[in-house]
Amino acid sequence: MMNRREALQLLATGAALQLAPIKALAAMREARAILSQQAATTPRTLNAHQNAAVKAMAEMMLPRTDTPGAADVGATEFIDLMLTEWCEPAERTLFLSGLADVDAQSQKLFGQDFVNCNPDQQGTILEALGDQMTEHVERARNEVLPEAVPEGGRNFYSMFRWLTLTAYYTSEQGATQALHFEIIPDRHDACVEVTSDQQGLQPQ
To answer: Is the alpha carbon torsion for 129, 116, 96, 149 positive or negative?
Structure first.
């Protein structure tokens, strides 16, 4: 059995995804069960406005289609939990400052906060954040940056994406419906072709 610290480490690093499917799903279930025992029903790091912004951004990244969306798997609650109990103070500050900057950019472009923008406007802002993240990565190739817990943690949007994707793919819905983990395979297929929906899993 894992303790709470081990569960946090497992989910935060995405280590469970490197295990065999059945073992991975079992480990993720155990980790999330441990965390849910003490998880608060209301956000502990994010205030109401920040929580709404994170939820809107996560839903833009991973909307509900024929598979569950970010909200369906509790991505916002997961992010708040990780910010509260796993991230270092500097990383938490980086994340919250990044959220404030999202609203600043939204106010500059559209005269209102991100959560009040329409989907097209929100998409424009996320696209700009993605461009900034790419520039950050390119600069980092020629610089020695301190290690950050979430990969690319010195950039808000890369940290946000990392936490959102970790929340999604370590959830039972994300693991079984998006990654196609089989809890009890009904047959053994020695050699099968990868289907189109299993290739290049990318957030929308």
So the answer is: negative
